TrEMBL record:
GO biological process, one term: signal transduction
Transmembrane is among the record's keywords: yes
Single GO MF descriptor: cyclic-guanylate-specific phosphodiesterase activity
Coiled-coil segments: none
Keyword Transmembrane helix: yes
Transmembrane parts of this sequence: 12-34, 150-169, 268-290
Record CDD domains: EAL, HAMP
InterPro entries on file: Cyclic-di-GMP_PDE-like (IPR050706), dCache_3 (IPR029150), EAL_dom (IPR001633), EAL_sf (IPR035919), GGDEF_dom (IPR000160), HAMP_dom (IPR003660), Nucleotide_cyclase (IPR029787), Rev_trsase/Diguanyl_cyclase (IPR043128)
Location of the GGDEF domain: 371-501
Gene Ontology CC, one term: membrane
Domain HAMP: 292-343
UniProt KW keywords: Membrane, Transmembrane, Transmembrane helix
Native organism: Brevundimonas subvibrioides
Protein name listed in UniProt: EAL domain-containing protein
Length: 767
């Protein structure tokens, strides 16, 4: 189906097509009506002409028959015929032929001999005529003489018996047919056809085109029928004529072309065509003008919609009060609503809803168009503590007040809120020192009490910043780098810090390690190293701590703190710890088979102390192995969910699993939880042991911790023993076990077995 691009074109084509179709239907109806009327007239004229021609034929036949009868009754003529007086007979025939105005006359004897005047008959014609007359079946009819039709009329000659016939012949030629045609009211065509073999032939002229319709016309019993001829549709009437010779019947045909009948109407047809063309042109012009008037406001609406779609202001002029005018008014109202809504959405997209300050998206756009951009991000220190103290609503007011201070101090620049507890500005700065100095100065300006409604709040800020042109590492966003710098400043306990790409590293690459970790556990990339624990009373290795190691096939050695910490954050720590428990149990069995029965310790993540499924796994695994296993945990791991954690620890202790409190003193150690933990061992963090030989305070803390543990019924292991002096001091303080590089580094299983086979080496170090 044709698609129109413009409405006016579619309307013009539609209405012009409908009008044209209507005109065509009207013209067709008129033509058919006129044709039907003309066909009826022609039929009537042909029927009437056929009747007239029949009467003329009969009248002429009677006239010729009377003339022949007069001659046949003449005594002298009968005497001449009886005596075969041919000159007298011929003279009489010529005389009567002239009076009757016929072409030929003849006397046909009963013996078949003929004397003719005006026309010569061939033997075939004489035989045909004699047969018809002798049988007394016909006295008048059509006779074919040398291929030409003649009207033949005969009268008998009696003397007193039949001695012959007087026959008059009138040729049915073209001239005769024309005289018949002139008698009709319409200029029809007349012809006499005779059947020869299977077809009808016109002996008066070439009109054989009607041969195919003669039989059908004869079957119509005097009613004209239609036929296709050279001139188009033709109406034909056929009347049978009496004929001498049954093998050659004759028929009179009257025909009239419909084109000739419709010719008088041609001017009217032309007039209708011209009127139709003029009407079509006027309609197309009027429709074009009307549709253009209708489509102009629609086109304006279409263009306005496209502008609206492109985000531009779109209003159309209202020029009417009809449906299109009301549509334009509605569109203008809708466009206005969309413009207002878009403005609100744009404002919402670029501003913080709580404070009305620009947001992170606005800051990123501003940084993208600022030459030598430097983003300074300021975070509210102790944000969660302050918010919990003053409430969410007051916290929003505090952030707004701090942003106002920063804006004023920075020369009126706009301040954006990039997170709940951080704001940022964009400045054009090309020097690191200048940027750091400005950040510290702005922090100092903001570090003043802020008066809120009903309260005064002490607030301080820490700044992180970065500028275009500095090393960005794998962090593309300048705003992101400023945020990371803020975290780096807080970690370093500095007031302001520039982004350090080296310190930040590649967290994305580290994250990919997690997907490799499960494969590593299955392919022996992760293995267990064991660091000996030296008993200071027995001067012997009585236990080992299992420490996980990972040799990545592409990245080499992966620090345990990195992959274990990431496993805890991503939920893979359970699978990793279960592998560690199974590995330690298997290695303990291997050591026993090698003749070394030792207690083996494995670190348990604090996140698993609330995991009932892991606890059951650990209990089942240790119970099945039946070995001396120790689980090392931190006392801070109990703080998050103390009831569940303490319950699981109690179940470990009841099952005979030793429990060791690891890294004691490194965090916020709680004596309240320490006394509740069913622990067998307390391990002093290496941070105190490393400086034991030159720090009296550390020595005092270590001594008091040893005494505290002993008073609670726990043995004490000191980590990080790297010198003989430290080992001697610990022995003097009553420490039970030592662990560190001075004793031995963490060893693979084969190295551990080798070391255990040389007890003299350990005794030498202990001495």
């Amino acid at each position: 189906m044709t698609r129109f691009r413009y409405l006016r074109t579619r309307l013009t084509v539609l209405y012009a097509g409908l009008f044209g179709l209507t005109l065509m239907l009207v013209a067709l109806a008129v033509y058919m009506a006129i044709t039907a009327s003309a066909r009826g007239v022609v039929r009537g004229e042909l029927t009437a002409s056929g009747a007239v021609y029949g009467q003329l034929w009969d009248s002429r036949s009677d006239q010729l028959r009377q003339g022949a009868s007069v001659l046949a009754q003449d005594y002298g003529f009968r005497e001449a015929v009886a005596t075969n007086d041919e000159p007298t007979v011929r003279s009489a025939l010529d005389n009567l032929r002239g009076r009757q105005k016929v072409e030929g006359a003849l006397i046909l004897g009963t013996d078949g001999y003929a004397t003719s005047a005006g026309v010569s008959l061939d033997d075939a014609a004489i035989d045909t005529l004699w047969t018809g007359l002798n049988d007394a079946t016909l006295s008048a009819g059509v006779l074919s003489i040398e291929g030409q039709p003649y009207q033949a009329v005969a009268a008998p000659v009696m003397a007193p018996v039949l001695i012959g016939w007087v026959v008059f012949l009138e040729r049915l030629d073209q001239a005769q047919m024309r005289r018949l045609e002139e008698l009709s009211a319409i200029p029809l065509s007349a012809s006499v056809l005779t059947r020869q073999t299977t077809a009808w032939h016109d002996m008066a002229g070439p009109a054989s085109a009607l041969s195919g319709v003669v039989d059908r016309a004869l079957d119509a019993s005097g009613t004209p029928v239609g036929a296709r001829a050279a001139e188009g549709e033709t109406m034909v009437l056929a009347r049978p004529l009496p004929s001498f010779g049954a093998e050659a019947p004759a028929v009179l045909t009257l025909s009239y072309p419909m084109a000739r009948a419709l010719k008088p109407f041609e001017p009217m047809f032309w007039a209708l065509g011209v009127i139709a063309l003029i009407g079509m042109a006027l309609l197309m012009a009027g429709t074009w003008l009307l549709s253009r008037g209708l489509s102009r406001p629609i086109t304006a609406l279409d263009e306005a919609v496209q502008r609206l779609q492109a985000g531009e202001d779109a209003q159309v002029e209202v020029t009417s009060s009809d449906e299109i005018g009301r549509l334009a008014q509605s569109f203008n109202a809708m466009a206005g609503d969309i413009r207002d809504r878009q403005a609100r959405l744009t404002h919402m997209a670029l501003h913080d809803q709580e404070t009305g300050l620009p947001n992170r998206l606005w800051l990123e756009r501003e940084a993208a168009v600022t030459p030598s951009a430097c983003v300074l991000m300021f975070g509210v220190d102790r944000f969660a503590v302050v918010r919990n103290a003053i409430g969410f609503e007051a916290m929003g007011q505090l952030v707004s007040a701090l942003a106002s201070r920063l804006s004023t101090a920075a020369g009126g620049v706009r301040v954006a809120r990039v997170s709940v507890g951080a704001v940022a500005i964009v400045l054009e700065i090309e020097n690191d020192a200048e940027a750091l100095s400005l950040a510290e100065r702005l922090c100092a300006v903001a570090d003043q009490p802020v008066k809120l409604i009903g309260a005064t709040v002490d607030a301080s800020l820490t700044a992180g910043l970065d500028r275009v042109g500095r090393p960005s590492g794998r962090v593309d966003s300048l705003v992101d780098r400023a945020g990371i710098a803020l975290d780096q400043a807080r970690d370093a306990r500095r007031k302001a810090a520039l982004f350090d790409a080296v310190a930040y590293g590649d967290p994305g690459a580290n994250l990919s390690l997690i997907s490799d970790l499960i494969t590593a556990l299955e392919s022996d990339q992760v293995w267990m190293a064991y660091q000996p624990k030296f008993d200071l009373r027995d001067n012997a290795i009585t236990g080992v701590e299992g420490l996980m190691r990972w040799n990545h096939p592409k990245r080499g050695f992966i620090a345990p703190d990195l992959f274990i910490g990431m496993a805890e954050e991503t939920g893979q720590i359970r699978a990793l710890t279960e592998w560690g428990v199974r590995r330690v149990i298997a290695d303990q069995k291997a050591l026993a088979e090698a003749g070394h029965a030792l207690q083996m310790s494995v670190n348990i993540s604090g996140r698993l102390l609330s995991d009932e499924a892991f606890a059951q796994f650990a209990l089942d695994a240790v119970a099945e192995a039946g070995g001396d296993i120790c689980f090392e945990i931190t006392e801070t791991a109990v703080i998050d969910n103390p009831e569940v954690a303490l319950g699981i620890i109690d179940r470990f202790a009841a099952a005979g699993i030793k429990v060791s409190i690891d890294d004691y003193g490194s965090g916020l150690s709680s004596l309240a939880y320490l006394k509740r933990i069913a622990a067998d061992e307390l391990k002093i963090d290496k941070a105190f042991v490393l400086s034991l030989d030159d720090s009296a305070k550390d020595a005092l803390l270590v001594k008091s911790t040893i005494d505290l543990a002993h008073s609670l019924g726990m043995s004490v292991t000191a980590e990080g023993v790297e010198t003989g002096t430290a080992l001697a001091l610990l022995r003097g303080m009553g420490c039970d076990t030592a662990q560190g590089y001075f004793i031995a580094k963490a060893l693979p299983m084969a190295g551990l077995i080798e070391r255990l086979s040389k007890p003299a080496l350990m005794e030498t170090k202990a001495a």
